[in-house]
Amino acid sequence: MTHVLAPVPALHLPAAAAAFARAGRVAFGSNAWEFWRRQPAERTAVWVVASSAGFPAAGLPGIDPGKVIFRGRLAGVVAAVRGRHPDPALRPDSTGSDEPWAMFFELDALERLARPRPVIGLVTVQGVRLSRVPQGPIAIRDPAEAPA
User: Fold this and answer.
1) Neighbour-count burial of 72, counting CB atoms closer than 10 A to its CB (0-12 exposed, 13-18 middle, 19+ buried)
2) Count of C-beta atoms within a 10 Å radius of residue 5
3) Contacts of 138 (CB under 8 A, 6+ apart)
4) Nearest to 28 by CA among 139, 120, 136, 114
5) How, if at all, do strands 2-9 and 44-51 pair?
6) Per-residue DSSP letter, 14
7) pLDDT tens column, 99-133
8) What is the CA radius of gyration of the chain?
9) Could you tell me which of 39, 52, 54, 103 has the fewest CB atoms within 10 Å of its CB?
10) Between residues 23 and 144, which one has the greater pLDDT?
11) How far is CA 17 from CA 72, 94, 104, in A?
12) Amino acid 97: pLDDT
């Protein structure tokens, strides 16, 4: 199975859980078209990390930037239509004024981790330990495996 670490602005994670609960899928915007189109849908686990982009000064209950909050399964990749997802019901409500995206990666089987885990120390497929949250999606080794 392929594993991907995908940073998403922490601000959107509570609304992403609500979108998933209502639609059974959630879509996140990305400009990393080449990366996402190479990922095998249905065989890619996506680990969603809360990035600090747009993180409110007051914080968000239960969401810490730099921690993996959700795990989902890649359900597909959809091209943007004028920078927006063709089905707005799959987008978190908090993304209403998002800048236009090239595409969207959709997740199903989304589950919140019982214990969020730090990104620091996760290992890329090349064997490099992460020392910070990446700026875009990257392929990683299964975080559930014991460190090498």
Assistant:
1) buried
2) 23
3) 4, 5, 124
4) 136
5) parallel
6) H
7) 689 999 999 999 999 999 999 999 999 999 999 99
8) 14
9) 54
10) 23
11) 11, 11, 16
12) 67
HSE-up (13 A, CA, CB side) for residue 94: 17
Q: What is the pLDDT of residue 75?
A: 97
Q: Which domains does the chain show, CATH number per domain?
A: 2-140 (2.30.130)
Residue 108, token pair as written in the block: 């199903």
Contact call for residues 26 and 104 (beta carbons, < 8 A): no
Record the pTM.
0.93
Dmax (CA) for the chain in angstroms is 44
User: CB under 8 Å to 121, separation ≥6 — which residues?
Assistant: 129, 130, 147
CA 102 to chain centroid: 16
- Distance between CA atoms of residues 124 and 119, nearest Å: 11
